[in-house]
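Weekly puzzle thread! Below is a chain. First person to post its structure in token form gets bragging rights.
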Amino acid sequence: MAWTGARLGSLEDKSIDARLNIQARAAIISAVVMFATIITSSLLALDRQKQAHVYAQQALRAAMLEKDFTSLARDVFRHAAINTADSRKDVDGNIGDMKDR
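Winning reply:
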């Protein structure tokens, strides 16, 4: 059974030129929407990538600081145990490394 309701904007009643114009407009509109979507998603991805880079740099700094603290603690305990000039130099070197960061 066929639908018998009103046909709004039916293409069957339009000339071939009118149908081609509608198709061309639809193609242009869809291309613009697709282009805008691609640009927007690319900009968002770039922003996320920059943010991820900042987080990675912060994580690296935190890991390096943790390594420096661990080395300092090791050398302080070593210096307390053996108390030599070399062990004191190691402690001073670790303090200098932490000042450089």
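Puzzle host: Confirmed. Bonus trivia for everyone else. The chain has a mean pLDDT of 89.
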